[in-house]
Design a protein that fits this description.
Distance between the termini: 24 Å
Number of strands: 14
Shape: globular
Bound molecules: adenosine-5'-triphosphate, magnesium ion
Subcellular location: Cell membrane
Main location: membrane
Keywords: Antibiotic resistance, ATP-binding, Cell membrane, Membrane, Nucleotide-binding, Translocase, Transport
Membrane topology: Peripheral membrane protein
Structural class: alpha/beta
Number of domains: 2
CATH class of the largest domain: Alpha Beta
Low-confidence stretches: 314-345
Largest sheet: 6 strands, mixed
Pfam family, one: DrrA1-3_C
C-alpha cells in the first residue's frame, strides 16, 4: 500500500534547469521523512509539487491517498505547510496572525484564541504576542510561521527547512514540538541541510542532489554507508599534507578528503578517542606539525563525499544557485494558490 506521501518519477524543469529529474518517494503513515540536500538540490520544488503549488512536467503523486494532480483542492484540506520563507502578515500582531488561521479553519473565536496562546507560549513568543509581526526578528517570524502551520493538526505536514535561522534553544523547542506531533500520528516530510537534524527527527532519510534521490535509508543505514565519526586534522605546513594523508589512510576507514586551501584532512574512523590519540602519536613521530585536530560527527558534506565522491556544491546554473534565485520565483508561482500557507491546506 502506498504511504501517506507517495511520489513516482516527478520531473520539473525551469528552462534549462532540471529541478526534479525523476523523484520517487514513499512516506509511511505516522513517520517522518527527512529530505536532505544542498542548495538547489530540488527540496523546495519537491515540496511545492506535493503541496499542489506547482505542477510537475511528468510523474504522479498522492498525499493522504489523494491524487495531487487530479484533486488538488482535496489534498489542500489534508495538509499543513510551513514554507522555506516565513509567510506571516506583517501588519497583524503575532496573536492575530494565529487566531486568523484558526478562524479560517472554522474554529470558534474562543478556541482560536486559546490555540494561539498555547502556540505563542510553545514557541517563546508570548512576550511579543501583542506586537505586529513587522517588528519581529527573522527567527521570531520563522517561529510564528511554524506556529501558524500547527494551528490545526492536519494528518500530513510539510516543513521546508523549519529550523534554518533558529537559535539552538528554539531549534530544540521546535524539535520537541515536531516529536509530539508525530507521536500523535502526523506524517511529516521535512527538508533540511543538516544531517544531525535529519538524524534526530526522521525515521527515513532521502538524500537529494540535482533533482534526484541519490541515497535512501534510516540515519543508521546511511551512517553505516558513509562511516560514523571523522578525524579532522589541519597540518601546519603544506609540504606535510602528503605525509599526513598517509598516516590517516593507515588508521582511518575510507577516503581521506583534503581541503587544499585550509590544509584540512578528514577521514572516517572507527574507535573514536583512542584512535585520535594514535593519530596524534603517529603524526608526532613523523614530525608533522598540526594546527588543529579533532573528532567530529559526519556533516552533509561527508555524506556527499562518500556518496558521490565530491562535496555538496551549489548548482552553477544560469538561474543562480542557492537560496536566492530559485526561491524568489516562488512568490510568483505561489500566487496561483494564494501564496500564504493556508492556501495549501
Ligand atoms: N521558479 C523557478 N524558476 C526557475 N528556476 C527555479 C525555480 N524554482 C527552482 N528553480 C531551480 O530549480 C533548482 C532546484 O531548486 P529548489 O528551490 O527546489 O532547491 P532547494 O533544494 O530547495 O535549495 P535550497 O537549499 O537553496 O532551498 C535550482 O537550480 C533552482 O534555481
Ligand atoms: Mg529550498
Amino acid at each position: 500500500m502506498p504511504g501517506a506521501i507517495h511520489a513516482e518519477g516527478l520531473v520539473k524543469t525551469f528552462g534549462d534547469v532540471r529541478a526534479l529529474d525523476g523523484v520517487d518517494l514513499d512516506v509511511p503513515e505516522g513517520t517522518v521523512l527527512g529530505l536532505l540536500g544542498p542548495n538547489g538540490a530540488g527540496k523546495t520544488t519537491t515540496v511545492r509539487v506535493l503541496t499542489t503549488l506547482l505542477r510537475p512536467d511528468s510523474g504522479r503523486a498522492t498525499v493522504a491517498g489523494i491524487d495531487v494532480l487530479a484533486q488538488p483542492h482535496r489534498v489542500r484540506r489534508s495538509i499543513g505547510l510551513s514554507g522555506q520563507f516565513a509567510a506571516v502578515d506583517e501588519y497583524l500582531t503575532g496573536r492575530e496572525n494565529l487566531t486568523m488561521v484558526g478562524r479560517l479553519y472554522q474554529m470558534s473565536a474562543r478556541d482560536a484564541k486559546r490555540r494561539a496562546d498555547e502556540l505563542l507560549e510553545r514557541f517563546n513568543l508570548a512576550d511579543a504576542a501583542g506586537r505586529t509581526a513587522k517588528t519581529y526578528s527573522g527567527g521570531m517570524r520563522r517561529r510564528l510561521d511554524l506556529a501558524a502551520a500547527l494551528v490545526v493538526s492536519p494528518p500530513v505536514m510539510f516543513m521546508d527547512e523549519p529550523t534554518t535561522g533558529l537559535d539552538p534553544r528554539n531549534r530544540q523547542a521546535l524539535w520537541e514540538v515536531i516529536e509530539e506531533l508525530v507521536s500523535g500520528g502526523t506524517t511529516l516530510l521535512l527538508t533540511t541541510q543538516y544531517l544531525e537534524e535529519a538524524d534526530r527527527l526522521a525515521h527515513d532519510i532521502a538524500v537529494v542532489d540535482h533533482g534526484r534521490v541519490i541515497a535512501r535509508g534510516t540515519a543508521d543505514e546511511l551512517k553505516a554507508r558513509i562511516g560514523g565519526e571523522r578525524i579532522e586534522v589541519v597540518v601546519h605546513r603544506r609540504e606535510e599534507i602528503t605525509a599526513a594523508q598517509e598516516v590517516l589512510r593507515a588508521l582511518g576507514r575510507g577516503t581521506v578528503a583534503l581541503e587544499e586551501h585550509t590544509r584540512r584532512l578528514t577521514v572516517p574512523v572507527v574507535g573514536g578517542a583512542k584512535l585520535l590519540a594514535e593519530v596524534i602519536r603517529d603524526l608526532d613521530a613523523r614530525g608533522i606539525e598540526i594546527d588543529d585536530i579533532g573528532l567530529r560527527r559526519p556533516t552533509l558534506d561527508d555524506v556527499f563525499i562518500s556518496l558521490t565522491g565530491h562535496a555538496a556544491e551549489e548548482k552553477d546554473s544560469a538561474s543562480g544557485a542557492g537560496n536566492g534565485a530559485g526561491n524568489d520565483k516562488d512568490t510568483h508561482d505561489a500566487g496561483q494558490a494564494g501564496g500564504r500557507k493556508e492556501s495549501a491546506k
